[in-house]
Design a protein that fits this description.
Blueprint lengths: L1 E2 L15 H30 L4 H22 L2 H20 L7 E4 L2 E7 L2 E3 L1 H19 L7 H21 L3 H17 L4 H21 L1 H11 L10 H12 L12 H4 L10 H33 L3 H25 L17 H17 L7 E2 L1
Antiparallel strand pairs: 1-5, 2-3, 3-4
Helix pairs in contact: 1-2, 1-11, 2-13, 3-4, 4-5, 4-6, 4-12, 4-13, 5-6, 6-12, 7-8, 9-11, 11-12, 12-13
Length: 379
């Protein structure tokens, strides 16, 4: 079927790429790298005798992330859709590799990484991209049949369910639940009836409850969240220390690089709890600035999605924005003890190549959708 893409009207803010969105992404990347520098110096010196250990490794990650970002920006949507079967198959293969002896890297009894030489990669991060791409393409093709369960609901549900199941087996319950949430978001923006979400929720609640109760460490996390005073030096220690560090920042913060609590109080603060560094050193004002940036990211990102003239780009950009925004909010909620600890990284900020590359790929897709010229496509 031949589809003629009609170029939208000229955007008064930008011609080509959305310039403001590019500036927001660059600012978030710069802030994230700066905060990681501040938060990782003491840990690098203590454990690796190199204060710049994490900074240098993240710089390499950033270079790779920028390459992936540019690829996602300039690849034609038609080419991306043609590659999708390969991407989905690669997704299934790569999510199984952590279970292969000699390839999978086991840490804390969890096989969540692939290690090749000195490099580690977390496949579940790549699966976020696969799910958003797959559902964007699928729902674009099935727009006219969205109310037919056997055609437009059960097939994508089964595919995404398999991805989520393998992530859960690693075990990575938090990421599996986040993938399930993103899947629901994609179903929602595609126009699936709300009755299906109600049916899914009725089935999901008892299953999720069993999953939590089936593992002692998950139950301990929930109990530590509900009763943090019961085990202040155990499961509640990291979150309690994070709260103390955030509180010590006050209104204006201690100043960038001058945080004290980050040095010894919060374990692995350079990773999932990196937002604590920003909150302590920049205070309430800094936290407010961060949320203003995230709000601007969401506003211009969703604006790009709403202005897309093709359903595929609309779904892809919307899912990309939603993934980054909801993950950012979830991480901030964890460090401020609004939800139980999850292990979900903070986009742009947390140390790790898998998360940074995935985040930049999503940003690339959004900017790709913001381009003002579209070519003729055959789908």
């Amino acid at each position: 079927m031949k589809i003629d893409y009609i170029a939208p009207e000229k955007d008064p803010i930008s011609d080509g790429f959305n310039f403001i969105f590019v500036m927001i992404v660059l600012l978030l990347v710069g802030l994230g790298f700066t905060v990681l520098y501040s938060g990782s110096l003491s840990y690098g010196d203590r454990f690796f005798d190199d204060s710049l250990y994490f900074v240098k490794r993240q710089a390499i990650n950033l270079i790779l992330a920028i390459v992936c970002f540019l690829f996602c920006v300039f690849i034609k949507p038609e080419t991306l859709r043609k590659l999708l079967p390969i991407i989905v198959i690669a997704g299934f293969l790569i999510i199984l590799l952590p279970f292969v002896p000699g390839v999978g890297y086991v840490r804390n009894n969890a096989a969540r990484w692939i290690q090749v030489w000195r490099f580690r990669f977390q496949p579940s991060e790549f699966i976020k991209i696969v799910i958003v791409l797959f559902l964007a393409n699928f729902f674009d093709k099935k727009q006219e049949q969205i109310d037919e369960p056997l055609i437009a609901i059960f097939p994508p549900f089964i595919v995404c369910g398999l991805f989520i199941f393998f992530v859960y087996l690693e075990p990575d319950f938090s990421t599996a639940m986040f993938l399930a949430f993103i899947t629901c978001v994609m179903f929602f923006i595609a126009g699936v009836k709300l009755s299906w979400f109600l049916k899914g929720l009725i089935c999901f609640i008892p299953i999720a409850t069993i999953m939590v109760l089936s593992k002692a460490y998950r139950l301990k996390r929930v109990l530590a969240f509900l009763f943090p005073e019961n085990d202040p030096l155990g499961d509640s220690y990291q979150v309690n220390a994070a709260i103390k560090a955030i509180s010590s920042g006050g209104f204006l913060g201690t100043g960038l690089g001058n945080g004290v609590q980050k040095i010894s109080s919060v374990p692995e603060i350079y990773s999932d709890f990196i937002f604590v560094v920003w909150a302590e050193e920049m205070g309430f004002v800094g936290v407010l600035i961060y949320f203003l940036l995230i709000t601007a990211f969401a506003f211009f990102g969703f604006r790009i999605a709403l202005n897309c003239k093709t359903a595929f780009l609309k779904y892809l950009s919307f899912g990309s924005v939603a993934t980054i925004i909801f993950q950012s909010l979830l991480n901030a909620a964890v460090v401020s003890r609004l939800v139980p600890a999850t292990g979900i990284p903070m986009p742009f900020f947390s140390y790790g190549g898998s998360s940074l590359i995935t985040t930049m790929c999503f940003c690339g897709f959004i900017l790709n959708a913001s381009k003002k010229k579209y070519e003729v496509s055959y789908v």
